[in-house]
## 1
Amino acid sequence: MFTRPSGCFLKTFIAHGRCLSETKRALSNGSFVRQLFEQITSTYTYIIADGKSREAVIIDPVITTVARDAQLLKQLGLRLRYAINTHVHADHITGSGKLKALIPGCQSVISKVSGAKADVFIEDGDVITIGDKKDGLALECRSTPGHTNGCMTYVWHEGASVFTGDCVLIRGCGRTDFQQGDSNKMYKAVHERIFTLPDNFIVYPGHDYTGQTSSTIAEEKNFNTRLTKSREEFNRIMKELKLSYPLQIDKAVPANMICGILPEP
Ligand SMILES: N[C@@H](CCC(=O)N[C@@H](CSS)C(=O)NCC(=O)O)C(=O)O
């Protein structure tokens, strides 16, 4: 049974006009989402905590901000169970390997399709649970290929929240021009697996380059500048994006295939 979420927005630290750490969704049972920002690659990391057990997961940690994240988990009295990646990132190295080394009991998670190393491999329809088996916190895994083949979107139904990684971004979407990128697959995945969620669900993206932090399904269904178009128009937009390659792509992709564990120099 789902409980009704009550909105609670608590800004904790602001730098350069951007909130670096913000509690977004908090439920009356103590469960919450904390959004954290990494400034070099404009990446969002999320801690999702189960209020009752104080167990937590982290989505898309970045290697350079692992110390910050580990300290916050400690301060909040949270036991990290899973470091989850939405996909094999091309712009930054994942922090999941480093978090595993720092926090005993933490396991890394990624989709099986990604081909990357991890402790736990997930597939479409799997549910990641923490806390009590019956009334703990549950994240549904939805395969949403297009940016990469192995992209997963995570749905926290009880918190009316969806973590879209580099699939749906606020008013935009992830690029589809490398790493098995495919705009047809992305369009289908978004319309069938993300835009079919209830309108009030909060969309938490993997990045934002314009200073925004979250959106909703209703907003993106109405105002997304790419995904509201026809499939043909969407394909044309994605083909003509002509973005330069991420600066760290050559070291990030190979490192992320092995959980962000860098070989000794
Ligand atoms: N300049 C950044 C890379 C920016 C970029 O390509 N972002 C990706 C997600 S990370 S692979 C993307 O999909 N962008 C979509 C868009 O429309 O901007 C860097 O050098 O790291």
Note: The chain has a mean pLDDT of 92.
## 2
Amino acid sequence: MTVVSVDDLTVAYGSHTVIDHLSFTINEGDFLVVVGENGVGKTTLVRSMLGFLKPKKGTIDIPQNTKIGYVPQFRNIDEEYPLSIKDFVALNTKPRIIPWLTKKERDRVNRMIRENNLVNIAERPLGLASGGEKQRAYLAQALLPDPNLLILDESTASLDNEMKYELLDLVTRFQQNGLSVMFITHDWDLAQQYGTRFLYMTGKSYETGPINELPVPAKGGTK
Ligand SMILES: Nc1ncnc2c1ncn2[C@@H]1O[C@H](COP(=O)(O)OP(=O)(O)OP(=O)(O)O)[C@@H](O)[C@H]1O
């Protein structure tokens, strides 16, 4: 089943064309890694897929049963941030008339807390969590509404190796249960280890295919 189909997409900021005739698809259960140097349009692609930018040309076909979860690139959550990890996850419950969570919503929040290894720290202020714990909280929040496509924009960028693997192992577990993943990264090793397919954006052209065909640059490349 196709969860997103992008065909001949062109996106521009005014006269500055950033994405030029891009086509690719994401299928159910894919772990698509998106690689490419700074400024080639990776975040612009995500913003277009989320509907925030109107394509100049081409189409982004998102079937009705595709629900997207998104973990954006940068957040500035400092020590003063007042919400607990659990409350932060619960922020992504859909708008409701009564101000408190229903039992079903609470159960769902607790499930996400469990499945993202946050049980022991659920009541801790998010601002005091480590980088890896924060990323797991962002993941839990994004997964709360049960999306079938998860977009991660550089989620491992600020993490040490152990935390990177922990986070991506977790994401892989969800992927193996049918979640499709689109993971934007500058880390070619992680791309090769976790991806099933790739989209390589060079700024001039695009390549896509199974992960074993990823054209890994020589050392000193765009890593
Ligand atoms: N709102 C905007 N208005 C005008 N130009 C923009 C805007 N957002 C991004 N750009 C430009 O579009 C190009 C692509 O930016 P984008 O953030 O999509 O790249 P990226 O591949 O995600 O980069 P990075 O890896 O550094 O996050 C850049 O030249 C950037 O300066």
Note: Strands lie at 2-13, 16-27, 31-35, 57-61, 68-71, 149-153, 180-184, 197-201, 206-210.
## 3
Amino acid sequence: MTNAIDITHLSRHHRDATALDDVTVSFEAGVIHGLLGRNGAGKTSLMSIASGQDWPSTGDVRVFGLRPHENEQVLPRICFVREDQRYIEDSFARHAFKAAAMAYPHWDADLAERLAEDFQVPARTRIKKMSRGQRSAVAVILGIASRADVTFFDEPYMGLDAVARQLFYDRLLQDYTEYPRTLILSTHLIDELAHLLENVVVIDRGRILLDEPVESLRGRAVTLVGPADAVLSLAGSRRVLHSESMGRTLRATVLRAPGQTEDPFEEQRARADGVEVLPVSLQQLIVHLTSAGASSSSSSSPSSPSPPPPTGPGPDAPAVTTTGPSSEVSS
Ligand SMILES: Nc1ncnc2c1ncn2[C@@H]1O[C@H](COP(=O)(O)OP(=O)(O)OP(=O)(O)O)[C@@H](O)[C@H]1O
């Protein structure tokens, strides 16, 4: 396993905020990573520093073993596109593409042209006069056609409509399959992107909350729905990330600790106890994990997720929501 990026004890302090707080994380080369987290979590700060566009307050960043800042050996291998991408004043898309051709050694001009047609980027409109979606299209084309060894997409696709976003996901995956490289994407539309991601790094208030292959993470989480006692018994020693009770029914999203073995008879036991075992989408999981992080004191263990008492309110009673523990970092 080769890492494209190694970040060690990285902090970034501003006068009024700590954007990154002692972050140590690596991004494996040749993998599509999702960098996920709530607003203000530190995603842009991390990408800006790893791409050499901002300086850390303390700590170290290496891209292919080299410090990226003002480093001509490594900067041409890094592309960082963001929603508020800056362009040369009064430029057209073709000027942005020409500049990219000079900056990125693997730039594919034909691909950029084809993508511009696919995304219907207007050739005769200055970028600053384009609609938000058209500007987003220019940014994602730069990100794909640069074919940089490490490409950061800091939500440039947020301006795209649903059809154009789908086109972006398809074209990116197609090109990545042909030209494997390291992609790091941040997004709040997690379920839309989930099928692309191989690894997720979750950042919360400047700290790494989780770093794990998507498949492993998905395999650790389930939602159990059924009679409260049976759900709690089935949850066993797993962490309850989130639970809601509706009358006597408890719905609990639970997470096995990394390395904790799966119960091969869970489905059978659940069926016998009248409990449904449902998959958890990546988005639900990240929402539960990061909203758990937001509630400082409410920590639920499987034995205390506020289930209704056996003589609890009727089926029309409002849902009770509890949130689980605050951090989950796996190796
Ligand atoms: N130049 C700056 N000056 C002061 N504070 C900053 C600066 N840049 C970032 N911050 C603060 O650092 C924290 C992390 O910001 P960052 O932009 O990295 O978050 P993010 O995860 O990208 O958020 P979003 O999803 O909303 O884009 C925020 O509290 C932000 O206000």
Note: The chain has two domains: 3-216, 221-279.
